[in-house]
Amino acid sequence: MPAVDRRTVDLTEYPDLVVIYLGMRVNTLTGLKTLIGFGPQISQSVHAKPDGLLLHENFMFSLAPPHAGMRQYWRDFDALERWARSTPHQTWWRQFLRNSGGTGFWHEAYFMRGGMEAVYDDMVKATGFLAFAPARSARGPMFSARGRALRPGSSTIATPIEEESLYPEREDKDGSV
């Protein structure tokens, strides 16, 4: 019997690599329309080959309830952040944070140089880190991926939506839920 063909990769050319998993879970019947509607939009944005996106893969977490996922590999956090704060993502995110359309959305990002960050919006079932780590409100310094990941500096690109427009008054001071 032949030996297993084992291979690995040399990532030295990608010292700032970011891997991000994203998911959208249908929470209500109307969420099915929301999920299906995002498919072509995401496909179109990936085919536009955003600067820094090395690879995009789609997969399903579950069929019942529908829970679709994506895994993306980005050259670095700055490229990912630039894309996330520009159209079409900026428009999608702004709309979603005002009305999730019967779905829940989450992402988890992992950084080659160390660190991780995540956010979970309208997720009715704990997923990923949320299933075992203490939950915190995604407000204040935890509102943006840069803040959650403890990335130095500040973005030169405006956030897709200002926290104050979603939450005119903060409910908590310490970030607890």
Short description:
The protein contains five helices and five strands; from the N terminus they run E-H-E-E-H-H-E-E-H-H. It is α+β, with helices and mostly antiparallel strands. The termini are far apart.
Using brief descriptors, characterize the structure shown.
177 residues, alpha+beta, Alpha-Beta Plaits, 5-stranded antiparallel β-sheet, 5 strands
Would you mind describing this structure in some detail?
It is a single chain. With 177 residues, the chain is an alpha+beta fold. The chain has one domain: Alpha-Beta Plaits (2-Layer Sandwich), CATH 3.30.70.100. 25% of the residues lie in helices and 25% in strands. The chain has five helices and five strands. The protein has helices at residues 29-47, 77-84, 89-98, 145-148, 163-166; strands at residues 18-26, 53-63, 66-74, 103-111, 116-121. A five-stranded antiparallel β-sheet has the order 2-3-1-4-5. Strand 2 and strand 3 form a beta hairpin. The longest helix is centred in the N-terminal third of the chain and has 19 residues, at 29-47. It is globular. The model has no long low-confidence stretch (mean pLDDT 92).
